[in-house]
Amino acid sequence: MTIRAVFFDVGGTLIRPYPSVGALYAQAAARYGLTVPDARMQAAFSEEFAVRGTLGERGPITDADEREWWRGLVAAVVGRFGRIDRFDAFFTELYGLFARPEAWRVFTEVPGVLEALARRGLVLGVVSNWDSRLRPLLESLGLARHFSFILASAPFGYAKPDRRIFDEAVRLSGVRPDEALHVGDSVSDDYQGALRAGLAAALVDRRENVQAGALSDLRGLPRLV
Fold this sequence. Notes:
By secondary structure, the protein is α/β, with parallel strands linked by helices.
């Protein structure tokens, strides 16, 4: 099998929130009079996010719908701890923050790995469960230039692990499914989803105890390809 294209998940694979989602929520809430420990805010976010489904899984949505989806999630998270009187201002500040580069960090090895793969002539693309702010975010982080396409679930209308988002990535790349490798940090969305769509798959696990068979970061990816 010859790999001619490599697709990447974003969150947890290429970038991470800084210092964490919970910390960013807690810092913003504190400015509006609600004090919550970062860890408790993180736990609340993780629980609420897990039960709300994925942006775009029921068809393409507008920017306004994306904003309302996030507004509902934020209200549910902070509502566990109390009431923010100026919630509209709080939400607008928080929503804007996550679209800016200062709320994110690119994993150290990522630029070098992308450059190494591009030098081999591989087609590089992004396949991510994200909203329409993904492209400008990756541009502001200096990553967008590496990719032939950036495919986000919310505007596209299908979300990983639905094979239709992988099929679209294959179409955009101009290769066969078995010539594409997808890399991500979710077993179900990235690894299993890609395999079911006929792609090769690689799992990245940046935790201290790495899962068997997973990459601890992306430095080993050029050798794998």
